[in-house]
Amino acid sequence: MEQTFIQYMKKIQHYNEALSVLYWDMRTGAPKKGLEQRANVIGTLSAQVFELQTADELGNMLTTLEAQKETLPYITKRLVEEVREAYDLNKRIPVAEFEQFTIEKAHSEAAWEQAKEAADFAIFLPHLEKMIAWKKKFIGYWGEKNGSPYNTLLDQFEPGMTTAILDDVFGKVRAVVAPLVQQIVANGKQPNTDMLFKHFPKDGQREASLELLRRLQYDFDAGRLDETVHPFMIELNRNDIRVTTKYDEYDFRSALFGVIHECGHAIYEQNIDESLTGLPLCTGTSMGIHESQSLFYENFIGRNEQFWAYNFPLLQQYSLQQFGDVAVDDFLKAINFAKPSLIRIEADELTYVLHIMVRYELERDLFNGSLQAKDLPQRWNDLYEEYLGVRPQNDAEGVLQDMHWSDGSFGYFPSYALGYMYAAQWKHAMDKDIPNFDELCATGDLAPIREWLTEKVHRHGALKKPFELLQEGTGEGLNPTYLTAYLQEKYTRLYAL
Amino acid sequence: MEQTFIQYMKKIQHYNEALSVLYWDMRTGAPKKGLEQRANVIGTLSAQVFELQTADELGNMLTTLEAQKETLPYITKRLVEEVREAYDLNKRIPVAEFEQFTIEKAHSEAAWEQAKEAADFAIFLPHLEKMIAWKKKFIGYWGEKNGSPYNTLLDQFEPGMTTAILDDVFGKVRAVVAPLVQQIVANGKQPNTDMLFKHFPKDGQREASLELLRRLQYDFDAGRLDETVHPFMIELNRNDIRVTTKYDEYDFRSALFGVIHECGHAIYEQNIDESLTGLPLCTGTSMGIHESQSLFYENFIGRNEQFWAYNFPLLQQYSLQQFGDVAVDDFLKAINFAKPSLIRIEADELTYVLHIMVRYELERDLFNGSLQAKDLPQRWNDLYEEYLGVRPQNDAEGVLQDMHWSDGSFGYFPSYALGYMYAAQWKHAMDKDIPNFDELCATGDLAPIREWLTEKVHRHGALKKPFELLQEGTGEGLNPTYLTAYLQEKYTRLYAL
């Protein structure tokens, strides 16, 4: 029975790999005329996966295995728990309602695009209201988790996460970051960033990206780099973890820092233990933990002074006229430039968390009842003014900027900020074991850093829950002071505050 | 019922599209470590397709529809016929035997690779014997078609084809080609081909290939060009027809003529009528007809003098030092160079059919009983000596050179030569409707040529059988004299015989 169950779950993963190849292909150059038929192909395979995931046969296997839970090997036991959770979530929603939701979601996504184009929230509002209503209905089926409707959503992206925790940690982070940002603005001195926006030919960016990935220990025998419009990392199977990027010839950071970020995601997936091969446990354990790996690479390695002491010549090699006479110190100041702005995905390392807090508070209030969708633009703008000191002039640069809400992904945004706090906490714990972190960056020897992360995070895949990983790997629960201390020290120094 | 049947067949095509993307991806850069798991994915999806193709549900639908055949729309009627044929072929073989065959086939393919590497037929012989035995067993289930076991195999690649027809037409072609080849050898004068083997940088070859594809009317909104090891064309769906090529920096013909060849295959698929979208009829009707399109493009367009009068500057543009001071006439003589050789895939336009005839005769005698597998190397070498005047020195350059037999693809080889005869016959028929063919090539206006082929061949997909297409499109059955006349005229002129 145990083997039948495992084979059944592996078969689902086979369909998921096929779906992942189809998605990857669609986003890396599939010819446009073929996409209409492609949507049907994805529809058929997705329906097959859903059928397998909700089949009574699976329910029966779960019940049988749960009865003998204590005698099961650890991996199988965890597999049963995870599959049971997903099975119940899937089964509780009536199929007809889920199909209706899927159709309305497609309309909502299209309406959001239109609305953003027209900078007109009114176009999106009725669809957004439907998405919220659907999610509230689903929460009714799923049941409230940890005491509030919004916590049910949070739990699906970050198991165990609650508004009580987030209110606390976000409050502590904001108490440090907001004044820092104000000081930088008041101070008025900004580094010269001209060199960032000079011409860097695409071919050179691609070569530099490939070399950087190698240096970061990305395994090209188990992955590849391709070009896309909205960069992503995708897991096809444990030994096929792909990254993508986008080349902007007048802002190389899009490709280079994007690649470092996606590399962090990819290295997590490439280093999951072999024993989980082919199982649904062979993936990152949560959105927040995944983001902790990408942000560890992007910020704690990719903005490290010594890392660039070692790697800056690579940029000079591929864009000599841009970087030939730039001192690495000036480059470091430029890439650590911080300034309040309106658009999340263009935000810097310091102000980014404030963008997330705005979204979190709005989602929380939408689902816990104190905010109506129609009032979002006003609240959005007020919060931006309060936290960042800037106010959107229209909905496109305000409440319409992100697509997440259009497909009903409420509860996702906090993962980005959680990942940042986790990353700082991993770094703090790592410093005890690897006191010569800067020296390793300076010599390009990143293997010990990857190995530490593999030991504490990667290898476990989804075997352990986020809080369990964090507790075991750092000796404590979520603690935002590592992030605030890091930001305080770094920005006080860089801006001589 | 009709709609249910059509939806059922479309669903199978969805899985086939997923499989095609998986194959395409494996052959255009999928990371090597991921391939082991990928094989399982392909296994699961293939099993699902086979299950759908052999389900009793499908058999019942076919029986019901066959009872009302005369009232069905034309496309549905043809669909029922084609699906019935495949259904019976699939159903007659016991599943356990087919699975055993599949396993032994994998071993046979591996053994062939080993044997070729070691130039030792003995390694491959026991596996080849098994493949032949399996096919003979299957023929027992399928039944003899057109009076002999080998005809059953021929019919699966080229419906209606028989050894009686092939003996006749191959005899007629050989009667012209063999003496021509002997004359060229006796004559002893060969054009200068040095310019073919000069350095042509890969990036330039890629750019020239892309431009050539555009000029040949390949639709990049419904396709793309990628790099691979063994070039192929693959149909994902009617609007996603991909080509691949291989770049040899010291023999540009591999990429450029390869691209023209695959373009012929691709244009066939891109121009099938929209009414066949999503159905298994939305594909080429046979191997031979498919090859007639690739060879039409490769030889009748791609070796046309006026075509190069128009396109030679493109080669000069991307490889100036190679072609800058070459006269287009000398280039034409070089690319039409003919000389007896041992390796089929490196053979020239004139001698190629002789290579095919060797394989045909061996297959025919193997299945109709007068030849044993163990005697193949000797017979192979004797036939090469007889037809081409050259004798292999070992099995790697002899009987082991092609992989087709290792996976049991007997009956396939003749398609290559049939395609060539068909192509010459299309060209002859086209000349009546398009008397200014050369002028169109000279001005780069290839649309009327593609439109003619679309009208006579492409649009029908698999709605019509090969002989039906040929009869309706050219007014007669297979007639090899168009090929022999073409070769006679061309090579007598080029070699001043």
From TrEMBL, chains A, B:
Keywords, alphabetical: Carboxypeptidase, Hydrolase, Metal-binding, Metalloprotease, Protease, Zinc
PROSITE patterns (alphabetical): PEPTIDASE_M32
Reaction(s) this enzyme catalyzes, per UniProt: Release of a C-terminal amino acid with broad specificity, except for -Pro
GO biological process: proteolysis
Known EC number: 3.4.17.19
Gene3D superfamilies: 1.10.1370.30
UniProt keyword Signal, yes or no: no
SUPFAM superfamilies reported in the protein's UniProt record: Metalloproteases ('zincins'), catalytic domain
Gene Ontology MF: a single term: zinc ion binding
Keyword Metal-binding among UniProt keywords: yes
UniProt cofactor(s): Zn(2+)
Cofactor note: Binds 1 zinc ion per subunit.
Residues annotated for Zn(2+) binding in this entry: 261, 265, 291
Positions of the catalytic residues: 262
PANTHER family according to UniProt: CARBOXYPEPTIDASE 1, METAL-DEPENDENT CARBOXYPEPTIDASE
Role according to the record: Broad specificity carboxypetidase that releases amino acids sequentially from the C-terminus, including neutral, aromatic, polar and basic residues.
Family that this chain belongs to: Belongs to the peptidase M32 family.
Stated name of the protein: Metal-dependent carboxypeptidase
Record organism: Caryophanon tenue
